[in-house]
């Protein structure tokens, strides 16, 4: 199997001045974008731009990915690295189950709250985040963190 | 009812934080959320699943959230 390597564009192999300008431009973009009102076309377009860029970059990533069946098989204890002790392999898989259950629980709680009204009695994640991101600076920070998270995902 | 829902969010948040801390302190024996995402993204389907999830998160946070005209 070919070695999995991140594309150069996301490995930070840019010349420093270019990188500084790119980061500054991104910060300015994030600041301007987070001043737009929710539920309007400007914020829709401004959020869609980085999303489309990331998806295009991801589609151009030629790193070899494991087929779904092989991926699932790699999760099973019988087909993992035999050099690792059994208890360690079990521990790791228990961890993946724990994380899956936590994500399912968060999703279920969100759905439960969303199916009820009023929102003041049944707060969802988004209604909770509304109050936190009412300040422009916090919305800006959240947008930058979202972009960084996307960049991190591209490298995986 | 608000108290129950809020308590649920706090418990879930603390549980995720605890799992992340355990993962960070375990030296690779217990996965962090990042490890789980990396494992999920080893497959093509899983990778696109996570990336679409990222798009949804941004859309949900910045386009669909917030008081209109705040």
Explained architecture:
The complex is a heterodimer of chains A (156) and B (70). The radius of gyration of chain A is 21 Å and the shape is flat. Chain A is mainly α. Chain A has 6 helices and no strands. Chain B is mostly helical and 70 residues long. Classes of the chains: A mainly alpha (156), B mainly alpha (70). At the A-B interface, helix 2, helix 3, helix 4, helix 5 and helix 6 of A face helix 1, helix 2 and helix 3 of B.
Q: pLDDT average of chain B, as an integer?
A: 88
Number of strands of chain B: 0
Total helix count of chain B? 3
The beta-strand count of chain A equals 0
Low-confidence stretches of chain B: none
Domains of chain B, number = 2
Shape of chain A: flat
> Biggest sheet of chain B, open or closed, and with what strands and sense?
none
| SSE string of chain B | HHH
Radius of gyration of chain B: 16 Å
* Residue share in helix of chain A: 55-70%
Largest interface: A-B, 59 and 49 residues
Oligomer: heterodimer
Report, as a whole number of angstroms, the end-to-end distance of chain B: 27 Å
Q: How much strand of chain A?
A: under 5%
Give a quick precis of the structure.
The complex is a heterodimer of chains A (156) and B (70). Chain A is 65% helix and 0% strand. Chain A is an all-alpha fold.
Comma- or semicolon-separated keywords:
heterodimer; A: mainly alpha; 6 helices; B: mainly alpha; flat
């Amino acid at each position: 199997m070919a070695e999995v390597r991140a594309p150069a564009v996301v490995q930070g192999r840019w010349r420093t001045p270019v990188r500084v300008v790119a980061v500054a431009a991104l910060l300015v973009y994030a600041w301007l974008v987070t001043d737009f009102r929710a539920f309007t076309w400007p914020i829709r377009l401004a959020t869609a731009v980085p999303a489309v860029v990331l998806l295009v970059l991801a589609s151009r990533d030629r790193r070899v990915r494991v087929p779904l069946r092989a991926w699932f098989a790699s999760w099973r204890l019988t087909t993992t690295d035999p050099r690792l002790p059994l208890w360690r392999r079990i521990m790791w898989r228990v961890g993946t189950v724990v994380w899956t259950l936590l994500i399912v629980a968060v999703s279920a709680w969100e759905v439960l709250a969303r199916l009820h009204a009023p929102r003041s009695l049944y707060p969802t994640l988004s209604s909770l985040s509304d109050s936190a991101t009412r300040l422009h600076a916090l919305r800006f920070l959240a947008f930058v963190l979202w972009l960084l998270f996307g960049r991190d995902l591209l490298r995986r | 009812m608000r108290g129950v829902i809020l308590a649920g969010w706090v418990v879930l948040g603390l549980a995720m934080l605890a799992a992340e801390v355990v993962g960070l302190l375990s030296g690779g024996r217990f996965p962090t959320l990042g490890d789980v995402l990396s494992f999920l993204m080893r497959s093509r389907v899983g990778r696109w699943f996570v990336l679409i999830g990222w798009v949804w998160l941004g859309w949900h946070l910045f386009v669909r959230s917030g008081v209109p005209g705040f």
